[in-house]
Amino acid sequence: MSKISDRHPEVGTRVQDTERDREGVVMGPLFPTDTSPVMLRPVGGGKEWQAAPGNLRIVEGKSHGA
Hints:
Elements lengths: L1 E2 L10 E4 L4 E8 L8 E5 L6 E3 L4 E3 L8
Antiparallel strand pairs: 1-6, 2-3, 2-6, 3-4, 4-5
């Protein structure tokens, strides 16, 4: 996995939330600022949660739905 910057990853990117040790798909930022939390949805669907951009790592080799 590679670390992403403190800016938001693209919508649809599969990421690991290192604070909660969960994988999710980026739904978008909560607010239009670089430091805004990112909304994530579990890979198989379910309740979304918020994560700080600095706590996310891109999951390499896996695309949404894989």
